[in-house]
Amino acid sequence: MEPALRNILVVSSGFLLLFTAYGGLQNLQSSLHSEAGLGVATLGTLYGGVLLSSTCLPPLLIRKLGCKWTMAVSMCGYVAFSLGNFHASWYTLVPTSILLGLGAAPLWSAQSTYLTVLGNTHAERAGKLGKDVVNQYFGIFFLVFQSSGVWGNLISSLVFGQTPTAESLPEEQLASCGASDCLMATASSNSTQQPSQRLIYTLLGIYTGSGVLAVLLLAVFLEPIEDAAQSGGGEKPPPVWSTLLSTFRLFRDKRLCLLSLLPLYSGLQQGFLSGEYTRSYVTCALGIQSVGYVMICFSATNALCSLLYGKISQFTGRAALYVLGRRPRGPALGLGAPPPRPPAWPSAPVPRSPPVNDLVIPKGAQTRPGPGGP
């Protein structure tokens, strides 16, 4: 096997193991730690740390440690977050979520830099076009990485599936699910059955072990590379304040300002998905063991569309895909408006069909012509 391909598979497998653990654990935060909004606050703190670290931390760590060890060290923050869930409290989850957030931006920056440098180096040696090789390497990476959502959620559902559940949920609980769930209520009527501590510790042990394997895989088997910008040619690295200012100078470009609205909207969508949807729509109505199965559908569709839209973009361009990705989300959120279970209609007192004029049509219902027409 070529060294370049081997390194790509090592990076891809490491991220697969790491985000198998983190992705599944992220989707369960608001369900496992719903008291006083601890799970949602943890996710908010986590991505606040990502925002802060993105300003200046990635270039400093990559220049100091190199891409390989930046990825390995940053992954340790994810492992610490898994360990913090063993004793979930404000004093364990908030600090570990900050640690994870500070490591997330350097992790992804180092991964992108590593694959880009590796692709350009291989293209130069093979006499190929650099961008073609880099795109190929990123395609291999995301093909492996996107499957992490399937495996992580499958593990959580298989483990929590051992929780004994009642045959049917009471109507009082279903009435407070979905769009009717109010996190600001003083008395929570949305009291779903929590899995046993043994099952929680089993799942956290699997996730922590997966994260440790990811760190060891990169530390032992990944070959380090040196970029020309990393070596610096003996030049003195710029100060921290200069790196910070250069980040904000990018907003002078109006194209970047317009593009920044897309990740802002995507962040709102991801926050709703991992913080509210999993708890209020899935855990409340179906049970926590169903969160993984529901999110598997999302992850599998996401991976399939990543491959499909990459091909379509060659013919439609990126702007059309931006519009296409925005339109289905409004109606999708509106699907949460109806109650989780439709009301039971009263049975007719007479076995024969009543006259048409005696039928009572519920307010707001839509009538359709029968098979024979109107």
Automatic annotation (TrEMBL):
Region (Disordered): 333-374
Matching Pfam families: UNC-93
Record's GO cellular component terms: plasma membrane
Record flagged with keyword Membrane: yes
Biased composition (Pro residues): 337-354
Domain of life: Eukaryota
Swiss-Prot/TrEMBL keywords: Membrane, Transmembrane, Transmembrane helix
Keyword Transmembrane: yes
Annotated compartments: Membrane
InterPro entries xref list: Ion_channel_UNC-93 (IPR010291), MFS_trans_sf (IPR036259), UNC-93_regulatory (IPR051951)
Membrane topology category: Multi-pass membrane protein
Annotated transmembrane regions: 39-62, 69-91, 97-117, 137-160, 199-222, 256-273, 285-309
Family annotation (PANTHER family): PROTEIN UNC-93 HOMOLOG A, UNC-93 RELATED
Family label: Belongs to the unc-93 family.
Name this protein carries in UniProt: Protein unc-93 homolog A
Natural source organism: Oryctolagus cuniculus
